[in-house]
Write a structure and sequence with these properties.
The complex is a heterodimer. By secondary structure, chain A is an alpha+beta fold. Chain A contains ten helices and 13 strands. In chain A, strand 1 and strand 2 form a beta hairpin. The chains are: A alpha+beta, B mainly beta.
């Protein structure tokens, strides 16, 4: 035998080697039995069907084996044209075919495993490694980016808080005033009503004389807080074109004297009165207008003068006692503003009881 | 000058005309009665006096006489400031005592009618609030008139005299 069965590297080579060896063996064994004429006259028929089939292009080992089996099975039938081979050769061919079949089966059994293993290696392991590395890098970058993005969000949130501060500063005094009115009312119920009536000078039926019917009010703004003064007690509105002349030895809420309409008006820092708890060292009295109280030399400094409104007495939550804000007549919830009793304010400023340190006064009473 | 004042007083005895020396202090204009002013000096070196009250800057030698100089800014409750070329020492006489008050500058002498002096709201509890006699609008400017007699109490005057 020319080839050892274990030297075959592929089924096709094994089959080809087997067929070559088979041809050689057949030629050696058939020579004595075959007549010269038959062999010389028609050499082609001498070839067995198996050889013919085997010489044809073999697409696969399986087709070759089938062809070989057909050739073997056809030997007894085609006795006229067939070439007889010795039994040893047949047995050898069967054994070789069985070996080839076993090899083929083994190869088929192994091939999927090898193929799967081979396919899995690049498809699963390698791509995963390649992909995994950038994924880790991307995750790291994204984490850093997210951290960076979080910081600006925090920075953006601060201005929002700063923007919300004016709203809070506006809302707080109103809320404080309303709470104080309720507290003052509660205290007033427990105190002497005779004293209460005395304090509420110029009031009738629990409201000022000018508020017995529908009345007009002028709205003005002080440090974001909307206030209202009745037009009946409004002396005039003056634009502050010059800085007031300060007088030494006066409290901080007294800004000084302004000369207007041939009269000197004492300017009051209204912000320190109505929201003393919100005044700090950074407070800058940059007021633009002075609202002069009728029949008085006092003026309330304000930042803006708004429109005039008409109010019904029922729209105002009137105070029931002077409390610590005697200048407060009540609150108008619909307009979220405090209504100032300017007459009581003027009386307080002209009296000897006018407080000097408003913040200390509020702190003591709290 | 006395003749001019007498002539103006004669014009309306019910509304006498007063003269005030105006000076500047912390960007505001103040006036003191001219009858209490002896003279105005340029700033000169002031010798500090150990143990003197805080409102006393020190003493100066005025032609052989020792004159106590009052720190007007401190007395009025104003911020302190450095001296400049305009700084002056106004020698005044109050209750037969001669003292000097240091001011930023001296401006002029103005004539004021008594009726032109307006009272000011006095809402302060500080002693300095008592120094203000009134205010007067002169030349579109508010003039703060200082009553020197109340500049210091009797105890303080005695304390100054003892220096």
């Amino acid at each position: 035998m020319a080839h050892d069965s274990q030297d075959f590297t592929s089924p096709q080579e094994a089959i080809e080697g087997y067929l070559e060896a088979l041809l050689q063996d057949v030629a050696e064994y058939d020579e004595p039995e075959v007549t010269v004429e038959e062999a010389s006259t028609d050499p082609a028929p001498r070839q067995t069907e198996a050889v013919k089939v085997a010489q044809q292009p073999v697409d696969s080992p399986e087709s070759a084996l089938d062809a070989k089996a057909e050739a073997e099975m056809s030997f007894p039938e085609d006795e006229g044209t067939r070439v007889f081979a010795p039994p040893s050769a047949r047995e050898y061919a069967r054994e070789a075919a069985a070996q080839i079949r076993q090899r083929q089966q083994a190869v088929e059994a192994e091939q999927p495993k090898v193929d799967v293993a081979y396919q899995e290696a690049p498809a699963v392991v390698m791509p995963e490694l390649k992909v995994a590395e950038p994924e880790v890098e991307v995750k790291t970058e994204t984490v850093v980016e997210e951290k960076i993005e979080v910081q600006p969000e925090v920075e953006i949130a601060e201005p929002e808080i700063q923007q919300a501060e004016p709203e809070v500063s506006v809302a707080d005094p109103i809320a404080d005033i309303q709470a104080e009115i309720e507290q003052d009312n509660l205290v007033a119920e427990q105190t002497d009503t005779a004293l209460e009536a005395k304090e509420n000078e110029g009031w009738t039926n629990g409201r000022p004389d000018w508020a017995q019917g529908r009345f007009e009010c002028l709205l003005f703004v002080v440090k974001g807080l909307k206030l209202a003064v009745p037009l009946a007690e409004l002396g005039g509105i003056h634009k502050l074109e010059k800085e007031p002349t300060p007088l030494f030895g006066q409290p901080g809420w007294f800004l000084g004297i302004v000369r207007t309409n041939n009269m000197n008006v004492g300017l009051v820092d209204t912000a320190q009165w109505v929201m003393s708890e919100h005044i700090n060292d950074d407070h800058k009295p940059d007021f633009r207008f002075a609202i002069r109280i009728h029949n008085s030399e006092w003026g309330l400094a304000c930042h803006e003068v708004a429109e005039a409104i008409s109010l019904d007495p029922d729209e105002v939550k009137w105070r029931t006692s002077l409390g610590r804000r005697p200048w407060l007549a009540g609150t108008v919830v619909d307009h979220m503003c405090a209504l100032i009793d300017v007459a009581a304010f003027a009386r307080l400023l002209d009296s000897d009881k006018v407080p000097v340190d408003l913040q200390a006064l509020m702190a003591d009473e709290e | 000058m006395a003749n001019v004042v007498q002539a103006k007083n004669a014009a309306g005895s019910d509304d006498p005309i007063l003269q005030y020396v105006t000076f500047r202090l912390a960007d505001e204009t103040y006036g003191i009665n001219v009858m209490q002013v002896q003279e105005v000096l340029r700033y000169t070196e002031i010798a500090p006096v150990p143990g003197a009250p805080s409102y006393v800057l020190g003493i100066i030698n005025l032609r052989g006489n020792v004159v106590t100089v009052i720190d007007t800014r401190q007395r009025f409750g104003l911020m302190t400031a450095d001296t400049t070329d305009s700084t002056r020492i106004v020698i005044i006489e109050v209750d037969q005592q001669v003292v000097g008050i240091m001011v930023d500058s001296v401006s002029e002498v103005v004539y004021l009618r008594q009726s032109e002096i307006e009272t000011t709201p006095n809402v302060g509890n500080e002693e300095s609030a008592k120094f203000i006699q009134g205010v007067c609008n002169k030349n579109n400017q508010l003039l703060i008139l200082v009553e020197l007699n109340k500049l210091m109490s009797d105890e303080e005057w005695a304390e100054v005299a003892a220096l």
